[in-house]
Design goal:
- The protein is an alpha/beta fold.
- It folds into two domains: 226 residues, Alpha-Beta Complex (Spore Coat Polysaccharide Biosynthesis Protein SpsA, Chain A); 69 residues.
- The chain has ten helices and seven strands.
- It has a seven-stranded mixed sheet, sandwiched between helices.
- Helix 9 runs antiparallel to helix 10.
- The longest helix is centred in the last third of the chain and has 33 residues.
- It is elongated.
- The mean pLDDT is 84.
Length: 324
Amino acid sequence: MAEHPSPCRLSVIVPVYNEEDCLDRLSDEISAALEGVEGTHEVILIDDGSTDRSFDIVAELANSRPGFVGLRLGRNAGQTAALSAGIAEARGEFIVCLDADLQNDPRDIKTLLDKMSEGYDVVSGWRKDRQDPWLTRRLPSQTANWLISRITGVRLHDYGCTLKAYRSSYLKPLRLYGEMHRFIPALAGFLGARIAEVPVRHHARTLGRSKYGLSRTFKVLLDLLTVKFMSAYMAKPIYLFGGWGLAAGLLGLALASYTLYKKLFLGVFVKDQPLFQVSIFLGLVGVQMILMGLLAEILIRVYFDIKDKKAYFVKDLVGRPPLT
């Protein structure tokens, strides 16, 4: 890992996977766009285990263009891992992420930063006029955006747009896995970040080919369950498991009581009442859910202790310098 010299104002992070046809033009467009951006900047290109000449071009750019940095992952680890590597390497006060396929427009970087100057911590790009097929790309994306907005409470039109700007103090503490990069605004929102959304340009792909398919939608749904759990129950998993366990146990008790009532007052034998078996099943499930909640509580405490990880995020510190 390279040593970090003095910080700069802006870090632009670009994950790259088999985009050899796009990189020269992309670098020209980024360089041109950053000429109109105030302050110092760097461009971090992360090669995510490409099998074409992508890293050779990334290395040439890093050696020939001031402010360009090249990283190469040992294998294809996915967009989330590539972004995480870039975030760890970034030293800018602000971090902007964008795709390498030329569908995002680097000229919108200034638009995002101008919006952040109004006091926002995250500014998300919205591909309002998206140039992708409706059935295979836009419809699944619209459905996912609606679900993510409803479940996380952070309402955005376009979670899937990589072109986003972040204040690095909100991005650096996050630990991203799976396909979690699309949930970064929601995760930052859980820390108290102020979030805005602005329309950005979107171009049809003319070079290379898309790396995404419909299978990604199912991964997103599974990661969404993780995000919901992390936001609502990470610190107190007993509320989730114990709540369902108590509900199942109480329902089992009610069915058992009803079975007993029918036996004592109506003369219906237990063997003729299938609800009795259901009540036993619900009782066992309730006990197991409560025990799972207690085990999860223990694991969470061990996790926080081993990682020396706090269950909160400090946004500001007034009156004394922060600990280093």
